[in-house]
C-alpha cells in the first residue's frame, strides 16, 4: 500500500498556482484536497470555480462549513457553503471526504 500526497488549499486566493503544481506532479501519487471552508474564507474565487479548475486532481474533500468571517470548522449546514454542489461532483478516482458532523 502506498501513500498519496494530497495538497490542500488554505490561503490561496485563486486555484491557478495549485493547478500548476498539480500538473507538475502528474503521474506521481499526488492530488488535491479541496478544503471547502478555507476556499470561502480566504479565496476570492468561488467554490464552483475551484472545483472546475482542480477537479481532475481532487482526491479528497475537507468538508466543514464556514460563513466567511473567520476560519471556522463548523458542521455542514451552519455556514454558506453549497454542499449540494459538492455532492454532485463526480469523482472518478474515488476521493474521500474528511468532515465535521452535519448541523442539527
* Major sheet summary line: 4 strands, parallel
Mean pLDDT: 83
Strand content: 15-25%
CATH topology: TIM Barrel
Structural class: alpha/beta
Q: What is the CATH class designation?
A: Alpha Beta
Specify the helix fraction band: 25-40%
Shape summary = globular
In whole angstroms, how far apart are the ends? 38 Å
CATH architecture: Alpha-Beta Barrel
Task: Describe the model.
The protein has 104 residues and is of the alpha/beta class. It has one domain: Divalent-metal-dependent TIM barrel enzymes (TIM Barrel). Helices cover 28% and strands 19% of the residues. It has helices at residues 16-24, 36-42, 47-54, 83-87, and strands spanning 5-8, 30-35, 58-63, 96-99. Strands 1-2-3-4 form a 4-stranded parallel beta sheet. The longest helix is centred in the N-terminal third of the chain and has 9 residues, at 16-24.
What's the arrangement of secondary structure elements?
Elements: E1 5-8, H1 16-24, E2 30-35, H2 36-42, H3 47-54, E3 58-63, H4 83-87, E4 96-99
Write a compact overview of the structure shown.
The protein has about 100 residues and is α/β, with parallel strands linked by helices. About 30% of the residues lie in helices and about 20% in strands. A four-stranded parallel sheet has the order 1-2-3-4.
Amino acid at each position: 500500500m502506498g501513500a498519496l500526497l494530497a495538497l490542500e488549499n488554505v490561503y490561496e486566493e485563486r486555484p491557478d498556482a495549485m493547478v500548476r503544481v498539480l500538473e507538475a506532479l502528474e503521474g506521481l501519487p499526488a492530488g488535491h484536497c479541496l478544503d471547502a471552508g478555507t476556499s470561502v474564507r480566504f479565496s476570492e474565487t468561488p467554490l464552483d470555480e475551484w472545483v472546475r479548475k482542480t477537479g481532475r486532481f481532487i482526491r479528497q474533500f475537507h468538508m466543514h462549513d464556514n460563513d466567511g468571517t473567520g476560519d471556522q470548522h463548523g458542521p455542514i449546514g451552519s455556514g454558506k457553503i453549497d454542499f449540494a454542489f459538492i455532492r454532485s461532483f463526480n469523482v472518478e478516482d474515488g476521493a474521500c471526504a474528511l468532515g465535521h458532523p452535519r448541523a442539527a
